[in-house]
């Protein structure tokens, strides 16, 4: 298998493919920064350089992996050279994996120097005499750094129908005194179940009808769905004049270390103006109820920023922002937001906010990021090889590109899932137009594809690197498991199976297998 | 292992090529049965499209039979360990164009898990054996067809295979190369190797094969030993030293009286064109030592001969006495070994080392030989 891998690598070298790729990557790494126009800050410039160089490198190596994947096997089959290998004592699956390993060797040979070039280029820029020390510090603290993220706890969106029904019945009784079991029930209900009790009579009636008429169950589900959405809304929407509080719990063992440097509040909000983002007043305080107040003058921090993009707020106090005394507030960072605008501000749960703190250097983070890109390249190579195991080169290339395009354009699939099918929605009533079995199939397939694509692309390292966020070893492990072991493994198994079945000496490519 | 061991067994072997929709397109091989024993040189004969190559590719596991069974060393042709005992030279040179000779042999050797040092030694011997020592650093893509065949042969023998499958091995080779291939086949067979020779060149098969199968239309038309296939039991040939006119008359009279027939012909035995050509080139080679292409007249690789520790004199002696020592001392092969061509070659090889100043042989066309016709044939052969 190793011999096949070396052979594949050698082919790329001898056909000058490596040279062509190396020149292209050099142009990307050193040429692209010359063409980029940033917001004028060193931080903005470095972020853009990182985003564009890493993005372009990934795209170029992705295309080359696909090309090599499709070409190396398909062309050898078409030229009959593979016959000479297949008659030697090596299993077909070993030939297949040898080819894959060869492409991965090639990717490593190209990605490692590219990564090093990016690293030294950026280090050189950040140490440039043209930058003031404050700009250099900003770069070191916000971009060329590895910062861990503390997120809010997941919302509890569970809704148990039996419990919700019992709770609605209890509320409907209008009692002021409760038995121990009733009290236990009251204490156990989740927020969505509690919200559901606001329409308790309707819910009780629908659940009882559903026992006799199963068709009514859809109405029950609709009511439950509304309760969940309403609860999510209460956690995400801040109306004009209202405030909202988030509590972040930081690992108490790390507090002393974290307090040595500034921490950052990372946030993004929407204000119903995604297509015309305007500036909005954001008013913040941190540390309410603790001994660590930020800003130090105890006045709220007011900044005016645009919606729909991530912002960072540096939280810096002498002795650190995070409470370091033993007790209930140890490691707890309380953040308050006041909406002093004239329109609601929405903080979507999936976008945070979150707290960022320094936990390492940029170099190691870049290394982990490059590894994730390397995993992607492995998957793309596997797709190309899989297609070429049973298709001629042009068809294999077409099929592989198709797979990549579908996986990259998930918007339509998300819409299908969101709108509960493909039959459309009556926008006046909000209800489905003639739902059919096709909807169920479309939802099932869309969810499946989304699950697969999300398990691959969710590990995108470029965004993390350009915003100085840590790519954790855990996420690296899961990326390896998901992208290489699971996805590439499945694709490889199928490709090797098809290659094993293939008759390698068929007189022409249109002849079929027996 | 013994000489009766069945190396290849095919029963009802059928191959039908189908189109994309599964419709039968061509029946390349139709229910053929045959067996090949260990140590045999087995010829697959037939015109183009008769099913020879399809059969070979099924033997190699590159095509799968539509019907019937085929086994190689008692296993499916796709059995990985069985492939370690195979050497294959395809009808075309399916090689990596960007590798040079050494890299090509080394790469294919590495697929047999041969140790690196051993692989290098074998590669060196094979490259010398196929006469490409002057082209070891040239890429295969730059090679002539003949040179590609030579390096193809080298890679086929890197593992010292027990079964060698040669598909049109002399295609694209000059007459010297053809002769060397035939010598090699005989050498391999003497070591108990089994050789399958697929060819439409009848002389190739006749010269080296013990048995042959003639295919036409994907079916077996004839199968048997060369003697069975070729002998004419209705005629007798007597060869003797040159006779006087009187003795000849006496013999003819005696034969005519005995056979009661006037169908008695007398002529001088002729040297075949191949021997003539080899002699001429051998003499020319002794005068001109430089060539940018493949060279000729090389020893079979030591490890293929199985005599790595013998010196060159021992090898020559061994060569001459090999018939008696061979465990497979079959009458047919003895007959082939006694042909003057092989001994001429041996003599030629020893002359290169001992007598470089030897004058060219004087070649006189035999009586009845049409010189123009011979020249035409020679030109045709040299054309490659």
Beta strand % of chain B: 15-25%
Task: Indicate the CATH class of the largest domain in chain B.
Answer: Alpha Beta
Percent helix of chain A: 55-70%
Separation of termini of chain A? 27 Å
Mean pLDDT of chain B: 73
Helix-residue proportion of chain B = 40-55%
Query: Strand portion of chain A, in percent?
Result: 5-15%
Strand order of the largest sheet of chain A: 1-10-4-7
- How many individual helices of chain B? 15
Element-level helix/strand string of chain A:
HHHHHHEHHHHHEEHEEEEEEEHHHHHH
CATH architecture of the largest domain in chain B: 3-Layer(aba) Sandwich
| Class by SSE composition of chain B | alpha/beta
Spans where pLDDT lies below 50 across 5 or more residues of chain B: 308-384
Question: Low-confidence parts of chain A lasting 5 or more residues at pLDDT below 50?
Answer: 509-514
For the biggest sheet of chain A, the summary is: 4 strands, antiparallel
Per DSSP E runs of 2 or more residues, the count of β-strands of chain A stands at: 10
Distance between the termini of chain B: 41 Å
Number of strands of chain B: 9
Encode the helix/strand succession of chain B as letters.
EEEHEHEHHHEHEHEEHHHHHHHH
CATH topology of the largest domain in chain B: Rossmann fold
Major beta-sheet overview of chain B: 6 strands, mixed
């Amino acid at each position: 298998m190793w011999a096949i891998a070396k052979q594949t690598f050698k082919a790329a070298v001898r056909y000058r493919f490596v040279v062509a790729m190396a020149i292209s990557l050099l142009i990307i790494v050193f040429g692209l920064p010359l063409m980029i126009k940033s917001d004028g800050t060193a931080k903005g410039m470095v972020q853009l350089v990182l985003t564009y160089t890493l993005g372009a490198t990934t795209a170029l190596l992705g295309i080359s992996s696909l090309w090599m994947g499709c070409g190396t096997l398909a062309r050898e089959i078409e030229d009959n050279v593979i016959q000479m290998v297949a008659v030697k004592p090596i299993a077909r699956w070993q030939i297949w994996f040898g080819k894959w390993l060869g492409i991965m060797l090639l990717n490593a040979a190209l990605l490692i120097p590219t990564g090093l070039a990016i690293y030294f280029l950026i280090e050189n820029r950040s140490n440039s005499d043209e930058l003031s020390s404050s700009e250099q510090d900003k770069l070191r603290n916000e971009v060329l750094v590895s910062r861990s993220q503390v997120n809010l706890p997941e919302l509890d969106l569970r809704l148990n129908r039996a419990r919700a029904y019992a709770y609605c019945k209890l509320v409907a009784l209008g009692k002021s005194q409760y038995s121990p079991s009733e009290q236990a029930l009251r204490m156990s209900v989740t927020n969505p179940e509690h919200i559901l009790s606001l329409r308790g009579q309707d819910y009780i009636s629908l659940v009882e009808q559903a026992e006799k008429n199963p068709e009514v169950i859809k109405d029950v589900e609709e009511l439950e769905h509304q309760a969940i959405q309403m609860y999510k809304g209460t956690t995400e929407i801040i109306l004009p004049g209202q405030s909202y509080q988030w509590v972040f719990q930081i690992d108490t063992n790390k507090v002393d270390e974290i307090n040595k440097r500034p921490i950052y509040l990372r946030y993004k909000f929407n204000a119903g103006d995604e297509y015309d983002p305007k500036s909005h007043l954001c008013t913040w305080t941190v540390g309410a109820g603790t001994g660590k107040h930020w800003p130090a003058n105890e006045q709220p921090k007011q900044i005016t920023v645009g919606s729909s993009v991530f912002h960072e707020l540096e939280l810096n106090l002498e002795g650190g922002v995070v409470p370091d005394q033993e007790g209930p507030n140890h490691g707890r960072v309380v953040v308050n937001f006041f909406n002093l605008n004239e329109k609601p501000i929405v903080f979507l749960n999936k976008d945070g906010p979150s707290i960022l703190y320094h936990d390492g250097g940029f170099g190691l983070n870049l290394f982990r990021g490059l590894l994730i890109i390397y995993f992607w390249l492995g998957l793309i190579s596997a797709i190309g090889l899989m297609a070429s195991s049973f298709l001629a080169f042009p068809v294999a290339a077409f099929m592989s590109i198709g797979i990549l395009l579908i996986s990259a354009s998930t918007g339509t699939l998300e819409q299908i899932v969101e709108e509960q099918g493909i039959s459309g929605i009556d926008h006046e009533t909000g209800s489905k137009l003639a739902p059919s079995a096709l909807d169920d199939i479309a939802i099932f397939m869309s969810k499946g594809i989304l699950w697969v694509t999300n398990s691959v692309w969710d590990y995108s390292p470029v965004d993390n690197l350009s915003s100085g966020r840590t790519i954790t070893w855990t996420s690296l492990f899961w990326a390896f498991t998901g992208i290489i072991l699971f996805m590439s493994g499945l694709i490889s198994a199928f490709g090797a199976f098809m290659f094993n079945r293939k008759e390698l000496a068929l007189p022409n490519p249109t002849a079929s297998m027996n | 292992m013994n000489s009766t061991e069945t190396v290849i067994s095919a029963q009802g072997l059928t191959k039908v090529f189908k189109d994309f929709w599964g419709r039968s397109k061509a029946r390349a091989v139709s229910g053929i049965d045959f067996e090949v024993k260990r140590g045999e040189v087995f010829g697959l004969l037939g015109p183009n499209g008769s099913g020879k190559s399809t059969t070979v590719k099924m033997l190699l596991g590159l095509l799968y039979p539509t019907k019937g069974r085929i086994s190689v060393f008692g296993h499916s042709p796709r059995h990985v360990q069985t492939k370690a005992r195979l050497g294959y030279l395809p009808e075309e040179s399916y090689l990596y164009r960007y590798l040079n000779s050494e890299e090509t042999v080394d790469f294919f050797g590495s697929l047999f898990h041969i140790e690196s040092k051993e692989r290098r030694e074998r590669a060196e011997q094979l490259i010398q054996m196929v006469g490409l020592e002057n082209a070891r650093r040239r890429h295969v893509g730059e090679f002539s067809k003949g040179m590609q065949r030579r390096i193809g042969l080298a890679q086929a023998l890197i593992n010292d295979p027990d079964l060698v499958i040669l598909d049109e091995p002399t295609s694209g080779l000059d007459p010297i190369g053809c002769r060397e291939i035939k010598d090699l086949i005989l050498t391999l067979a003497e070591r108990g190797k089994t050789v399958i020779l697929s060819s439409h060149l009848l002389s190739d098969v006749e010269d080296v094969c013990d048995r042959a199968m003639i295919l036409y239309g994907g079916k077996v038309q004839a199968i048997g030993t060369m003697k069975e296939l070729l002998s004419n039991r209705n005629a007798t040939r007597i060869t003797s030293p040159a006779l006087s006119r009187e003795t000849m008359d006496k013999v003819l009279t005696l034969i005519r009286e005995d056979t009661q027939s006037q169908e008695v012909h007398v002529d001088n035995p002729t040297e075949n064109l191949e021997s003539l050509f080899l002699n001429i080139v051998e003499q020319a080679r002794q005068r001109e030592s430089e060539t940018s292409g493949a060279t000729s007249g090389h020893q079979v690789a030591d490890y293929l001969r199985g005599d790595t520790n013998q010196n060159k004199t021992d090898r020559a002696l061994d060569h001459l006495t090999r018939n008696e020592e061979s465990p497979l001392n079959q009458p047919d092969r003895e007959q082939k070994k006694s042909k003057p061509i092989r001994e001429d070659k041996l003599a030629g090889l020893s002359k290169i080392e001992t007598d470089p100043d030897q004058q060219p042989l004087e070649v006189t066309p035999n009586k009845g030989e049409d010189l123009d016709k011979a020249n035409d044939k020679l030109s045709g052969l040299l054309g490659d």
